[in-house]
């Protein structure tokens, strides 16, 4: 006779616990994958894109110089869903090129031609912003400034550009940052800029050495009468040597006065010491501790 079947109920063992842990890990992994997939979809929506009319057909009303194209202008090329983000079109010969409008990319206006190094930094951010430059060594006319700053998120200006309430109004609420290629900022309406929550960048201390060197150069040129000597050479007045002709003053053993002993004043004093200046006098609202470095007398 066959033996009766015996059923036993055992307690959860090691294998069961391992299976439970595996299930939890798999569940967490699936959730992470779902979250990652969702993030990728969101990023894809935010990426800049370029539009091309389908079937090689151009829209019927193409502006000549990059004016904003509406959905109607793109009829037959893209659907309503595809044209939720405004685009811009420019015709080059028989070709039409689209780029994202200022509403999609950050717009930056530069009011003057700047060094190549600066332009390279702006070009690196081309994926996030469009850069418009007044490509001239001369100041941008007021009318052009008001026109080109419209809708800008960032403004890089010069000390010759008066940035007042009129410019800020022309820029509109998009303007978040103003950078000025200068140490001073008297040309900026700081109080008005603060009211609008706009950040300001400037370039302190970058001209200290240059200003100090030019000051010493002018001092030497004046004391040694260099401009007069150059003029005599140009006019043909330079003849034979004369004992007292164009004699000037030397810096060695002299007394030099500096009005104020800030960054630039101190930089000038440091450069004058090797010339053998005997006394260095300075004037200011109060004595400066750094004067001891150059033996300055208050």
Description:
- By secondary structure, the chain is α/β, with parallel strands linked by helices.
- Helix content is 33%, strand content 16%.
- The chain is built from eight helices and eleven strands.
- The protein has helices spanning 14-46, 116-124, 142-148, 165-171, 190-195, 208-223, 226-235, 263-272, and strands at residues 68-69, 87-92, 95-100, 106-110, 129-133, 154-157, 177-180, 199-201, 255-259, 279-283, 296-297.
- The N and C termini lie far apart (123 Å).
Broad structural category: alpha/beta
Radius of gyration: 35 Å
Strand tally, please? 11
Q: What is the mean pLDDT? A: 77
Characterize the biggest β-sheet: 5 strands, parallel
> What share of the residues does DSSP label as strand, in percent?
15-25%
- How far from one another are the termini? 123 Å
Keywords:
single chain, alpha/beta, 5-stranded parallel β-sheet, 33% helix, 298 residues
Question: How are the elements arranged and paired?
Answer:
Blueprint: H1 14-46, E1 68-69, E2 87-92, E3 95-100, E4 106-110, H2 116-124, E5 129-133, H3 142-148, E6 154-157, H4 165-171, E7 177-180, H5 190-195, E8 199-201, H6 208-223, H7 226-235, E9 255-259, H8 263-272, E10 279-283, E11 296-297
Parallel strand pairs: 4-5, 4-6, 6-7, 7-8, 9-10, 10-11
Antiparallel strand pairs: 1-2, 2-3
Helix pairs in contact: 3-4, 6-8
Would you kindly provide a brief summary of this structure?
The chain has 298 residues and is an alpha/beta fold.
